[in-house]
Structures are given as C-alpha cells and as structure tokens.
Amino acid sequence: MNGEVDDPFPVEDCLFEETFSNESVYNLSGHELRIKQVFGANLGVAAPVWEAAIHLSEYLAERSVELEGKRVIELGAGAGLLGVFAARLGAEVTLTDLPVALPPLSANVDANTPPGGWPSPPRVLPLSWGTDQPHFPSDWDLVLGADIIYLPKTFPLLIETLVHLCRSGTEMFFCSKMRKEHRTHDFYEDYLPARFNVELVQRDEQQNINIYKATLRT
Ligand SMILES: C[S@@+](CC[C@H](N)C(=O)[O-])C[C@H]1O[C@@H](n2cnc3c(N)ncnc32)[C@H](O)[C@@H]1O
C-alpha cells in the first residue's frame, strides 16, 4: 500500500482540500481523553475516531479486562483513542498504523500524558500488515484492533500479521462495524477461524457493531 491509506469510506474528510482539525473529549471510565482528528492531510480513514474504538474501550473497562502491566499492541490505531485508553489503564502499549498516520497519532499520545507522566510511555510505530510484522515481537499479551476489517485484499495480510504477533495465551480483541460491502463477516467467519479460536463476545444490534475475542489455535 506504499504507506498510503486506502479509503473505501465516503468520509467527509475527502471533501476538504485544506487541513483542519478538531479536538474531541471522551470520558471513558473516569479518564478524560482529548483526541485531535486531523482532516484533509491525506489521512483518509485514519483521521476520525470510529465508533468501534469507543465500543471496544468501553468493553475493556466494563468487563474489567486486565490491562495493568500487560504488553499490548494495537493495529490500525488511527487517531489513537483505544490505545491511549489502554495505556491510561496501565498497559504497556505499542500503537501502530501506516506511516502516514503516525504524526497525528503521536501527537494524541503526547497530549494525553497523565499529570504524573505515563507509568509506561506508549510507543508509536509503523506497522503495515503483511510487511512490517517481522520487526515486532511474537509474544504480546493482548492485540487490539478497532474497525480495521474493511479491505478484503488486506485480510490475508492481517492474518499473517496476527499469527506472527501471537503466542499461545495471547488474547486478541477486535471491534467492527459489520459492513456487508466490506465483507467484514468473511474475515470473522472464514479467515480468522482458520488460525484462531474466535468468539463473538458482544453485539450492538442497533449500531451493527460486534466485538470478537480470539486466541491462537494450538
Ligand atoms: C477505519 S480506521 C480505524 C482507526 C481506529 N482504529 C479507530 O477505530 O478509530 C482503519 C485504520 O486501519 C489502518 N490501516 C488500513 N490498512 C492498513 C494496513 N495495510 N496496514 C496497517 N494499517 C492499516 C488505517 O490507516 C486506519 O488508521
């Protein structure tokens, strides 16, 4: 993908030639997070905070998924809400995305540094699926992804990446808007189960957003 973001969504940012940004405030489980969304800088779908990121952040907090001290990698982090939230909950987080998405992502990580500093400062690194995973360890505690299942041509690349990142015992949580036109179901019903145990753990019928938990098949 040459570091460019494929953009299958009719998101409004495509309408803007000039760059502009807005800052949104999210209150998640007692944490106030300020996330700047930068539009019109060739960021495409990496610019906004997607509903799936909010859903998965809330899920992790509500279900008390253990994050403190855990080594967490987020794929396709975009503006960074989910990874920043996991870091605020005490995880050692590595947020990844395509190179073009990293400057605003890093800025959002920095902007949400807690008053006393990060217990473990989050890292922001380029990870293009199917290409860069060999530069990353293979023993993460948790792998997170919000709204990253929307480009069928990347499904095999993503599986290759996930297989590399996971050991037996690694837990993965994905949250997706289940868009038929993006064949999101195919990923969870065909691609992912071929290598992982997959469980649908939450469905929001109204918003058509699912959360899946997966672990490596042994
Ligand atoms: C719909 S956005 C979701 C962003 C963020 N996770 C959220 O929910 O707000 C999809 C993200 O996947 C990233 N992405 C798309 N294709 C990718 C690839 N081949 N490798 C790495 N990241 C990719 C995009 O840059 C974008 O940040």
Task: Characterize this entry briefly.
By secondary structure, the protein is α/β, with parallel strands linked by helices. It contains 5 helices and 9 strands.
Overall pLDDT score: 92
The CATH top-level class label:
Alpha Beta
- The rough form would be described as globular
For the secondary structure, the number of strands is 9
Q: Give me the CATH architecture, please.
A: 3-Layer(aba) Sandwich
Which regions are unreliable across 5 or more consecutive residues at pLDDT < 50? 1-5, 10-14
CATH topology: Rossmann fold
C-alpha Rg (nearest Å): 16 Å
Strand order, largest beta sheet: 5-4-3-6-7-9-8
* Strand residue content: 25-35%
Number of domains: 1
Terminal CA distance: 31 Å
Q: CATH H-level name... which superfamily?
A: Vaccinia Virus protein VP39
Question: Structural class, judged by helices and strands?
Answer: alpha/beta
Chemical compounds bound to the protein: S-adenosylmethionine
Q: How many separate helices?
A: 5
Can you give the helix content as a percent range? Answer: 10-25%
> Can you summarize the main beta sheet?
7 strands, mixed
Order of helices and strands: EEHEHEHEEHEHEE
Give an overview of the whole structure.
The protein starts with 19 loop residues before the first strand and ends with a strand. It has 5 helices and 9 strands; from the N terminus they run E-E-H-E-H-E-H-E-E-H-E-H-E-E. The protein has a single domain (48-216), classed as Rossmann fold (3-Layer(aba) Sandwich). The longest helix has 12 residues, at 51-62. Mean pLDDT is 92; it is low at 1-5 and 10-14. Helix 1 (51-62) packs parallel to helix 2 (81-88). Strand 6 (142-146), helix 4 (155-165) and strand 7 (171-177) form a beta-alpha-beta unit. The strands form 2 sheets. The protein has a 7-stranded mixed β-sheet with strand order 5-4-3-6-7-9-8. It has a two-stranded antiparallel sheet with strand order 1-2. The protein is globular. It is of the alpha/beta class and 218 residues long.
